[in-house]
Specification:
Blueprint: E1 2-3, E2 9-10, E3 23-25, H1 26-35, E4 47-51, H2 55-66, E5 71-75, H3 87-95, E6 99-101, E7 104-112, E8 115-127, E9 130-141, E10 144-147, E11 151-152, E12 164-165, E13 168-169, E14 183-184, H4 196-220
Parallel strand pairs: 1-14, 3-10, 4-5, 4-10, 5-6
Antiparallel strand pairs: 2-11, 7-8, 8-9, 12-13
Length: about 220
């Protein structure tokens, strides 16, 4: 068996998240868009704030613009060098009119009448190598806030007998887990870089290992 479960859990912002329309996970927004037969029916805000600095944040921001959002801003708590999105992706975002605000950490998602109205942010800076808040705060108006600060592996997705490391499935270099008949790859596997091309490579390597194990089983059988 090969497990390619991905990362279904979404990291929390670390602040209070109101039960309000317009606040959602960026991956859910992207999934809805990818599965839609009519893009015009995918809801998008007029002002969108995307919290995060990776590929998911960029994708969600650009797609929001393409769906008709008038103003889209990516906010990231560190500087440009800290963003996991590539330079090409960031250029792609800015080409589509996406604004990028660095050195800003979310403090509160604002809501009124059951709907998102904005995000209160704290200005941040590096001091002696540590990320700190400067004391300055500001607010961005938004009727949609998309969370894109990383995903987590949900342990209930797999057999609890499988060994985990760092919250993901531990494997050898061939993708074999602690269970002799189970392999794993992709984002759910510990030590990966969360890249599609790497997930594909995991599948190829694991397939060869599984094939070798089956052949060995036949010979010994």
């Amino acid at each position: 068996m090969f497990l390619g479960l991905g990362l279904a859990g979404v990291n929390a912002l670390g602040i209070a998240e109101p039960q309000a329309a317009g606040l959602r996970a960026a991956v859910d927004f992207i999934a809805e868009l990818r599965q839609a037969t009519d893009y015009s029916k995918v809801p998008v805000g007029r002002r969108v704030v995307v919290i995060g600095g990776g590929m998911t944040a960029v994708d969600a921001a650009v797609q929001s613009r393409l769906l008709g959002a008038e103003e889209v801003t990516i906010v990231y708590r560190r500087g440009p060098d800290g963003m996991s999105a590539s330079g090409h992706e960031l250029d792609w975002a800015q080409t589509h009119g996406v604004k990028i605000r660095h050195w800003a950490a979310p403090k509160e998602v604002l809501a009124e009448g059951g709907a998102v109205t904005g995000v209160r942010l704290a200005a941040t800076a590096l001091r002696d190598g540590a990320l700190v808040e400067t004391g300055e705060q500001f607010t961005l108006q938004a009727d949609m806030v998309l969370k894109a600060i990383g995903q987590t592996y949900l342990t209930e997705q797999a057999d609890t007998a499988i060994t985990l490391k760092g919250g993901r499935i531990a494997t050898d270099t061939d993708g074999r887990t602690s269970h002799p008949r189970i392999w794993a790859g992709g984002d759910c596997r510990h030590g990966g870089r969360d890249l599609t091309v790497e997930a594909v490579e995991h599948g190829k390597v694991a397939a060869r290992s599984i094939h070798a194990a089956l052949i060995a089983g036949v010979r010994h059988g």
